[in-house]
């Protein structure tokens, strides 16, 4: 398994970096944490048709601004976006006249709303020829929704 910090800046980009985005690559899938504007670097690392799973921490602009870059990608597989309950409505701002819509892309973007704990969303990552179970718990925070990842 490889973990790449595509960008780690705070709430705005600077000459030194972009807003948050982390890529976790396993033999079976790509997992992306947040869609900051450094997500443009995905095209340098997503070279196969493994599934792409994108988890959104919350809908502050620094975590979703990278969606306007999705029209540059040439993915053959869908991008599966996971977020808290209500994320579908929140992502409606990704539309004309500000940018393209998800329907305009040459690949599908599927959005899934995860329920707050104790509902468990389980996905499998293959690392070093062993299955690793990663448990993803959406949890409510006082200022935003978040994730608790355990294995």
Short description:
By secondary structure, this protein is mostly beta strands.
The CATH first-level class comes to Alpha Beta
Helical residue percent band: under 10%
Query: In sequence order, what are the helices and strands, one letter per element?
Result: EEEHEHEHEEEE
Main-sheet strand order equals 1-2-3-4-5-6
DSSP strand count: 9
Termini Cα gap: 14 Å
Structural class: mainly beta
- CATH fold naming: Metallo-beta-lactamase, Chain A
Silhouette = globular
Q: Which band does the percent of strand residues land in?
A: 35-45%
Give the secondary structure arrangement, pairings included:
Blueprint: E1 2-7, E2 21-25, E3 30-33, H1 42-45, E4 52-55, H2 61-64, E5 79-84, H3 87-90, E6 109-114, E7 121-127, E8 130-140, E9 145-150
Parallel strand pairs: 3-4, 4-5, 5-6
Antiparallel strand pairs: 1-2, 2-3, 7-8, 8-9
Detailed description of the structure:
The protein has 151 residues and is mostly beta strands. It has a single domain, classed as 4-Layer Sandwich (Metallo-beta-lactamase, Chain A), CATH 3.60.15.10. Helix content is 8%, strand content 36%. It has a six-stranded mixed β-sheet with strand order 1-2-3-4-5-6, with no helix packed on it. A three-stranded antiparallel β-sheet has the order 7-8-9, with no helix packed on it. The longest helix is centred in the first third of the chain and has 4 residues, at 42-45.
């Amino acid at each position: 398994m490889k973990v790449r910090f595509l960008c780690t800046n705070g709430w705005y980009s600077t000459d030194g970096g972009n807003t948050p985005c982390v890529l976790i690559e396993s033999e079976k899938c790509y997992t992306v944490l947040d869609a900051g504007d450094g997500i443009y670097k995905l095209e340098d690392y997503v070279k196969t048709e493994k599934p792409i799973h994108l988890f959104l921490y919350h809908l502050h602009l620094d975590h979703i601004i990278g969606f306007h870059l999705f029209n540059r990608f040439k993915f053959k597989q869908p991008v599966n976006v996971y977020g808290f309950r209500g994320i579908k409505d929140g992502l409606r701002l990704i539309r004309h006249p500000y940018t393209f819509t998800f329907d305009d892309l040459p690949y599908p973007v599927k959005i899934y709303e995860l329920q707050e704990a104790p509902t468990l969303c389980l996905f499998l990552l293959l690392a070093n020829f062993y299955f690793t179970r990663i448990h993803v718990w959406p949890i409510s925070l006082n200022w935003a929704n978040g994730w608790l990842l355990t294995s």
